[in-house]
Amino acid sequence: MKRELLVHGKDLALPKSLHRHLEVVLDSFSLRADINRLSVNFRDISYYHRREGLHPVEMRFERDEDNRHIWKLVFIASFSYPDEHSPNVAPELYFNFKRGWFYQPDIQGCELARPQVIDLFTSWALAFCRQLRNQHFDDISANEIRT
């Protein structure tokens, strides 16, 4: 059965092209029927070595309790190195659809429904969709999240 994707919450909508790409990504994984939470990671491995290129992205999904073929997008987080000496990546953009908030290090947190956040998300989502369409990520993996 084909998996369906919904955004958890009503503050932001996915552009249709990104919505379709994410459904294809979800369909590409062989998932056990008992998995309820899933983390999907998109990586350009060279970013970790050269600190240039596509920033890693994590998306969290939860299975709908009533319709098991529906997955709800809980959050999207993009990561980068905070400075040139940092050994680890940290969140640079964090869109939490389930809780209705947004985080960016220079402004900290705010409501997801702000017009500036909606504009930023739309621009980011369209760019990310192009990266998916052009197959720029060399590692796309899914991991079960245990509760």
Overview of this structure, please?
By secondary structure, the protein is α+β, with helices and mostly antiparallel strands. The chain has one domain: Roll (Nuclear Transport Factor 2, Chain: A), CATH 3.10.450.430. Helices cover 24% and strands 34% of the residues. It is built from 3 helices and 8 strands. Strands 1, 2, 3, 4, 5, 6, 7 and 8 form an 8-stranded mixed β-sheet that branches. A hairpin with a 6-residue loop joins strand 3 and strand 4. The protein starts with a strand and ends with a strand.
Characterize this entry briefly.
The protein has 147 residues and is an alpha+beta fold.
Which band does the percent of strand residues land in? Answer: 25-35%
Mean pLDDT: 91
Distance between the termini: 25 Å
Main beta sheet: 8 strands, mixed
- Give, in order, the helices and strands: EHEHEEEEEHE
Pfam families: DUF2787
Organism: Aliivibrio fischeri (strain ATCC 700601 / ES114) (Vibrio fischeri)
InterPro entries: DUF2787
Protein name: DUF2787 domain-containing protein
